[in-house]
């Protein structure tokens, strides 16, 4: 059994918040405590509360507010000469850059965060910052470069017994192996993540891990019924906790499962839903992936091949501009799958 998961980004007066606290509650309490810290003139507490506010805004899709909050948190941390707090603010900034599709910037910011965490002696901040670099590299498709980093971070998290970080590392490794065609290994890792997240009451990690299992059983086994059931279970958690980004990716995966099953009209409707959700939160990668699924579904439903080719060319350019190597390859495979010239 693993100890209950914790959320180290909730600090100071907000340390009582759970990893399962709804984002709306985090935002309300974080804003209240930030105001109190400002009135008390406590720079360190302002930096800590500002971090929680920044992350809540980002996860809710309020990107302009998230940017304002992380910058304020960083300024307060720097004024207090608190390198640990600076590391956490930079970690949040890297998360925001990745969400906006600025992957090169995200990689650099997480590098700065890791350096600040090391300088401040905050091993958790350093670990989360390195995890940010690993995730960014994974999203870009640089699997050979970051798979060993995922494994290193997993070993460190297991040594500390930090369940939430263990789950994250397992999911990242599983995603790399799934995208590399190593389905058996991916499924084993995703299922371990499900077990640990359940034991540690990490509902966010649990929802993401269920999504991963659903993907593999659909892609490897063609088990559409089980995959959809898993996604439905995960969606309930996403809605309860207001995990808007996770919910949109859940819907995008539901579209993938339906598409693989040949249920193209249903897939089209779900991809349209996911696309609107991603656009609402400014998440370029999710938007591009949903557009790809939508274009493929429309083509299967009889859309003109010339327009499909135009759409795929636009998506290839978009994937390149974001730096998504794996997704760029998916566009090329779509040309072949749909009988179009690359």
From TrEMBL:
Keywords: Repeat, TPR repeat
SUPFAM superfamilies xref list: TPR-like (SSF48452)
Repeat keyword on record: yes
UniProt cross-references to InterPro entries, sorted A to Z: TPR-like_helical_dom_sf, TPR_2, TPR_rpt
Domain of life: Bacteria
Gene3D superfamilies assigned to the protein according to its UniProt record, in alphabetical order: Tetratricopeptide repeat domain (1.25.40.10)
PANTHER family from the UniProt entry: HTH-TYPE TRANSCRIPTIONAL REGULATOR RV0890C-RELATED, REGULATOR-RELATED
Protein name: Tetratricopeptide repeat protein
Species: Streptomyces fradiae (Streptomyces roseoflavus)
């Amino acid at each position: 059994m693993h100890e209950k998961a914790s959320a180290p980004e909730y600090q100071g007066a907000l340390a009582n918040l759970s990893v399962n606290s709804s984002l709306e509650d985090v935002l309300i309490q974080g804003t209240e405590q930030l105001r109190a810290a400002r009135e008390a003139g406590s720079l360190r507490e302002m930096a800590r509360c500002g971090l929680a506010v920044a992350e809540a805004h980002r996860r809710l899709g309020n990107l302009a507010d998230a940017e304002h909050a992380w910058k304020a948190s960083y300024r307060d941390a720097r004024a207090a000469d608190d390198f640990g707090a600076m590391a956490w603010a930079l970690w949040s900034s890297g998360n925001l850059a990745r969400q906006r599709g600025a992957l090169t910037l995200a990689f650099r910011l997480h590098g700065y965060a890791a350096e600040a965490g090391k300088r401040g002696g905050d091993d958790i901040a350093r670990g989360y910052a390195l995890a940010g670099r690993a995730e960014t590299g994974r999203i870009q498709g640089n699997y050979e470069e970051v798979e060993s980093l995922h494994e290193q971070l997993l070993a460190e998290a297991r040594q500390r017994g930090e369940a939430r970080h263990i789950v994250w590392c397992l999911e990242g490794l599983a995603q790399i192996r799934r995208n590399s065609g190593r389905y058996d290994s991916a499924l084993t890792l995703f299922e371990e993540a499900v077990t640990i997240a359940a034991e540690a009451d990490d509902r966010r990690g649990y929802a993401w891990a269920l999504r991963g299992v659903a993907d593999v059983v659909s892609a490897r086994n063609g088990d559409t019924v089980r995959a959809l059931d898993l996604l439905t279970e995960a969606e309930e958690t996403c809605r309860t906790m207001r995990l808007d980004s996770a919910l949109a990716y859940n819907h995008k995966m539901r579209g993938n499962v339906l598409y693989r099953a040949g249920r193209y009209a249903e897939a089209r409707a779900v991809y349209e839903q996911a696309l609107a959700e991603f656009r609402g939160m400014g998440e370029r990668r999710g938007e591009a992936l949903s557009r790809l699924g939508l274009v493929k579904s429309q083509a299967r439903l009889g859309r003109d091949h010339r327009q499909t080719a135009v759409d795929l060319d636009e998506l290839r350019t978009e994937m390149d501009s974001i730096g998504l190597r794996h997704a760029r390859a998916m566009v090329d495979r779509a040309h072949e799958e749909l009988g179009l010239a690359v």
